[in-house]
Sequence to fold (65 residues):
Amino acid sequence: MPEYYDDNFGHWDGMEDEDMRDFYMQCQRENVSKKCQGCGRTVRIRPDYAYCNSCADARERGMDF
Fold:
């Protein structure tokens, strides 16, 4: 089974469900390339997101950039 990962949500689980795969594909189509405000990497994320998944997780744990 292929691995599903993106800079929005990290690793996706439950991909045996067709609706989940469809949602994943929709997210991939809507992603834009932009610079993460946390790490500065150019990532493919949702247009309204400012941080990649790794930086969002770090912020949730209390890390400040």
User: Anything to note?
Assistant: The CA atoms of residues 40 and 51 lie 9 Å apart.
